[in-house]
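# step 3/5: fold
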Amino acid sequence: MQEIIDDVITVLLPQLKEKPFALFGHSFGAMTCFAFAEHVKKVYNLEPIHVFLSGASAPYSEARLQAPKRSHLSDEEFISWLTSIGGTPPEILAKAELTKLFLPALKADLYVAEHYRCTRPSTPFLSCPVSCFDGKEDSPHDLQAWRSMTSGDFTVQMLSGGHFYLKEGANEKYLLDHITKHLETAEMDYL
């Protein structure tokens, strides 16, 4: 995870120092957002104006620590699991030559997410609002555990759908409207 954070910091740090920023991450992206926010606060004393997290338990929650590890599944079992959570077009999963190309990268990403460990913050390291989202039909995530990262406002919203609920038109519109509204409000407060 630190290698990912270092790569992102290299690219984004000049912009982060110049203007307000927010973070959004879904699933593995939520883990990356947490690690990124913690790192830029600790090392550069920079803080986002809002963090939006989706489709994942906090990395230090019991639910996350006890979740099944899927990065070690056989290719067939892994494809079956990918099919069950949706998000990957079935026509891609049905073509062996395509799955051979992207399966190693997917498994490697999942391995990083599954093995990323950190301790629950004893005190919040952020003061910005944190908004969490998830699909009602997804496997349960411990969204409340994210609360410990901030002393600011904290909200959880459940939307219809499974793990890739955010790809459904109505949910996508809702998320974009919600994020836009909060960023416009934060920008006014920032000025």
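# step 4/5: annotate
The chain has one domain: 2-190.
# step 5/5: archive (pending)
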